[in-house]
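Quick one: structure for this chain?
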Amino acid sequence: MTKQKKQPTILSIDTSCDDTSVAITQGLVVLSNVIASQTQLHKQYGGVFPTVAKQAHKDNIDPCISAALKKASPSISSGSIWGNIDAIAVTQGPGLAPALEVGIKKAKELAKKHNKKLIAVNHIEGHCLSPLATRNSPSTTLENHNEINPALSLVVSGGHSEFILIKKIGKYERLGWTIDDAAGECLDKVGRILGLGYPAGPVIEKFAKLGDEKCFTFPLPMTESKNFNLSFSGLKTFARNKIKELEDDNQLDQPAIYDFSASFQYAVFRHICYKLGKVLKKHPSTGQVWLGG
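Got it. Here's what it folds into:
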């Protein structure tokens, strides 16, 4: 019987935007994951305010690290928790520069203090590989997953909307991306026009469940383009004009807001799905994997 290779235990730090996040992983298994949200701090600004985010990260990062270490401790076999940490990983970008700075500085301090390897992580690569993480003992290691590649990753998170071909772990090709707003930004901005507060995206999602997605018809962007890129600015402009029209006619009551939320959310994801369909059908690598040739 082959002895299984010991999987590295890594303490990871992410301060790429407005959440201070610290996790401890052992191979693909997440031993602990601690997040300090800043949503209430940025609510008054209607968006993430860089200097406020930076200070909040400074305040939150040490308590988050301590909490993550404490939660992971029972899962560590023996010895001190720091004695079992093999490396420190930290998001180096993309992200909000003042916020990233806090996490990078702390990671460097910890790596030097405890004599640990320092790993710089690309934020988007983290999103692409996150589906491999598990709470339970995995049947495969990260290296084994290269056997099922290439794979297609759809990243729709915060300020990012893009299609990425994973040729193998560590080797990627961006197939298409938003040329203006990301999907999340678009939903938030239209939600704020509707007066739904900050962050407005989750409220639109909640209201969409109460409305009729077919009530308002939105255009489907970029149907004539030959690439796999996305664009949400046109949907945002169309939504703004339609909201003004409803307000001028005194028709923007609560049921109309529910219907508008449902219709707009449908329009955003219709655009993503339309472009996803083009990727799956027309890109040679993904076509071969997903459509059988």
